[in-house]
Design goal:
single chain; alpha/beta; 7-stranded antiparallel beta sheet; 5-stranded parallel beta sheet; 22% helix; 31% strand
């Protein structure tokens, strides 16, 4: 994987517990182009790699902007970004990837964000405004001081298409989502990003009224119901080398590959980024990720090594 060296040009406290980081490329070299919904891998230090959505201006090839919420308990990334990263520091990042693309041809787009989930959504709103697309953005947060980019949204050119939903309880959030999604638009699309409880409720509301292929979502982690499902041991065969390995109930395929010093790309280890997707030669995957599409799952020909397992006793991978 080719890494890009950048310098942290600016750090801004966007809301309580949320900081934005402007990453710059010095000299004559431009940063890679990207589209709304894209994210980058950020090497935060201490061997930790995390994915953060890009929320700046895609036309600015000298800078990238990400925003990071400090979480508790942290798996390390948010603590390092908030505690150790300051203006002037250098970081390594991966090239932008987009697993949450925007359909610019949609007749209307409903953009739903909660908390730090605003990061890919605000990039979509910026783009739709720039091309004259029809859209409405709904931003849910605990309170005004937890609403990131509020000033940018209030004072931007599409402020009249932004609605803030602050301080709602669980029931009110659900009712509001039902009201927003009650009337589908022919040829329209729904995009949603936020923490798991919000995503589950928003997805339920959307599925009640919108066609499945109009619902687009990005999760921070695989659904707990999938990730925490009962696990049984199985055998994994590596087709290229003929090596056969045992995966215990408490292990993942990725764990076993690492233990045997077999190279396999990975990043999030939560089934959301797609870095570890691998081709399946034979056997049926037990999908536990939140990355693959319904079509990919149904095909049974690919799987995420970091969380998914074999549905049967054995699976053969193209490794």
């Amino acid at each position: 994987m080719t890494l890009i060296n950048v310098v942290v040009e600016k750090v801004t406290q966007e809301a309580e517990g949320i900081r934005s980081f402007v990453l710059a490329k010095k000299g004559l070299f431009k940063l890679p182009a990207y589209t709304p919904g894209s994210h980058i891998d950020v090497h935060c230090g201490e061997g930790i790699i995390r994915q953060y959505s890009l929320c700046g201006d895609p036309d600015d090839r000298r800078h990238l902007m990400i925003a990071v919420r400090q979480v508790a308990p942290s798996r390390g990334g948010s603590d390092l970004m908030h505690r150790d990263v300051a203006a002037g520091d250098r970081l390594e990042i991966g090239a932008p990837r987009n697993n949450f693309p925007l359909d610019e041809a949609a007749t209307h787009s409903v953009l739903l964000a909660a908390g730090i989930g605003i990061t890919p959504i605000i990039a979509m709103a910026d783009r739709l405004h720039a091309i004259g697309g029809s859209f409405k953005l709904h931003y849910f947060s605990r309170a005004t001081n937890h609403t990131a980019f509020r000033k940018r949204l209030e004072q931007g050119g599409y402020a009249d298409r932004v609605t803030f939903h602050e301080g709602l309880d669980v029931q009110s959030t659900g009712q509001t989502l039902d009201n927003i999604l009650r009337q589908p638009v022919e040829g329209g699309q729904v995009y949603m990003c936020g923490p798991a409880p919000f995503m589950d409720r928003a997805e339920t509301a959307a599925k009640a009224h919108w066609p499945q292929d109009a619902i687009n979502l990005e999760r921070f982690a695989a659904k707990p119901a999938l990730a925490g499902a009962p696990a049984k041991p199985f055998t994994v065969e590596l087709a290229r080398s003929g090596v056969t390995l045992q995966v215990a109930a408490g292990e993942t395929i990725l764990d076993v590959l690492e233990a045997h010093e077999i190279d396999a790309a990975f990043s999030c280890e939560q089934g959301v980024c797609g870095t570890c997707v691998c081709d399946v030669v034979s056997g049926q995957p037990d999908h536990r990720d939140s990355f693959l599409s319904g079509h990919q799952r149904k095909s049974g020909r690919v799987m995420c090594l970091c969380v998914s397992r074999a549905a049967g006793e054995k699976i053969v991978l193209d490794i």
